[in-house]
Prior knowledge:
One of its GO terms (biological process) is alkanesulfonate catabolic process. This is LLM class flavin-dependent oxidoreductase. The protein is α/β, with parallel strands linked by helices. It folds into 2 domains: 12-154, Rossmann fold (3-Layer(aba) Sandwich); 180-479, TIM Barrel (Alpha-Beta Barrel), CATH 3.20.20. The protein has helices at 23-28, 39-46, 56-72, 86-98, 112-120, 128-139, 194-208, 235-243, 263-276, 291-296, 304-322, 361-368, 379-392, 414-424, 430-436, 442-454, 472-475, and strands at 12-16, 36-38, 77-80, 103-109, 150-155, 180-185, 212-215, 250-253, 256-257, 281-286, 329-330, 335-336, 351-354, 371-375, 401-406, 457-462. The longest helix is centred in the middle third of the chain and has 19 residues, at 304-322. The protein is elongated and about 90 Å long. Bound molecules: guanosine-5'-diphosphate and magnesium ion (MG). Magnesium ion binds at residues 23-24, 40, 80.
Amino acid sequence: MAQDPSLPDPALVVLVGASGAGKSTWAQARFRSAEIVSSDDLRGVVGSGRHDLDASGDAFALLDLIVAGRVRRGLTTVVDTLGLDVVRRREWLDLARAHGLPAVAVGFETPPALCRSRNAARDRPVPARVLTEQLRAFRGLALDAEGWDRVATVTTDEPAAAPVPQGPQTRSPRPRSGLDVVLQVSRFPWGEDPAAWLTGVARAADEAGFAGLALMDHLIQVPQVGTAWEPIPEPWVTLGLLAGLDTGLRLGTLVSPVTFRPPGITAKTVATLDVISGGRAFCGVGAGWWEREHLAFGLPFPPPAERLDLLETAIETMRALWATGTRPYDGQRVVLPETTCYPRPVHDVPVLVGGAGERRTLRIAARLADGCNVPVDVVEEKAAVLRRHCEEAGRDPAEVAVTVLDLPVVGRDRDDVWERVERLRGRTAAATYARRHHAGTPPQHRDRYRVLEERGVHTVFAALPDLGRPEDLLDVAAMLP
Length: 481
Ligand code: GDP
Ligand code: MG
């Protein structure tokens, strides 16, 4: 078959892409078999078969010899390997340069789900973890900046319909649509059967159309929400239970005080949640504020400046441990002799910073986080400050999502709304309580959320103050935009 007319010929053509991206198929459709030098084929020549990884050293030595021989003779040569090793790519590029042959890199931007399903269908699939690493490595490449004479991109139009191989019961995260509304659960009136209540809430939230479920992370129920003797479960254990359900909910905390757990342990916990949920985890972190729960649980509660230092340390540690490879890490506040943390998360876990302190918290979010959560009623001021910090830090403000915590009272109709306000308001005046909680019907909340969306809010964490039975969530579905 003809060579691709848009590519120079002769040329050295280096394929770059994950397993199952379609590299070999693409090459075989365009080049003579003698022009293609494949590391898999050469493993089969010097080893026991195409997948004999023990033969890789010999296969690559042979590959280098063949490529060098052909390039020296000015013959078109297609290097069919993963192509993800920057040092090898550099060597092939230098070789082509030395012999005056145009050097072409071909990147295969095949959707990850398609790579995974093709890989799973193979006799000898690459382990899922390895494939994830390859996809991640590919995403991190900037072939355009490497000096190739030509960088071509192969895309696949095929729908990534094939399911991501995941646990038997778990779904992909629900795709984002404009504004996400995540159910924030902060009270646990679970009666006699805690697991049934929790799973019921998650299933109903999914059915109602919430994008995710977030749990408050406190050791004692906070006075703003309830009494100290109400149950408040450990959130990551609880999310582990919910990860096993057949929902598309994103799962995480809003927010975990970094004073509770050493950050490396949180990195491990969240990576595990991400893996067992098929890439649905997120991680909210904050500096912690409630002294009582720290004292009661024997935890240090350092002054605010130190807690904010801990927040920076925590984000840096988690990101270092979640990154590819096991290299030593030497960063701003954190030094680690190695970063061996398996399983790796299967997607880029978003880190949200909770808190609205303008001097440091928002600055930390601007420098280090994927999102920043602020109270809904001050979102505009806080978003403006966040943007300024992003600009000062040289970061595109679009990279730091603005999210809000909202505590809506939702009633079926006007009567139901005001009955709820009366039930919930405690000693606060009804009108004040209603205003603070934007008390209204589902359509009224939906309109309010649309306005937030127009103002650039990415996610609303909605904590329903009177969430009781899981079924109640179906009544509020109409508030979701
Ligand atoms: P490589 O690991 O990147 O070399 O991927 P392969 O070229 O071996 O392709 C992996 C699998 O995907 C094989 O079963 C191919 O038959 C299939 N495949 C590759 N490209 C295409 C394509 O364009 N369309 C379809 N339908 N299947 C393809
Ligand atoms: Mg191949």
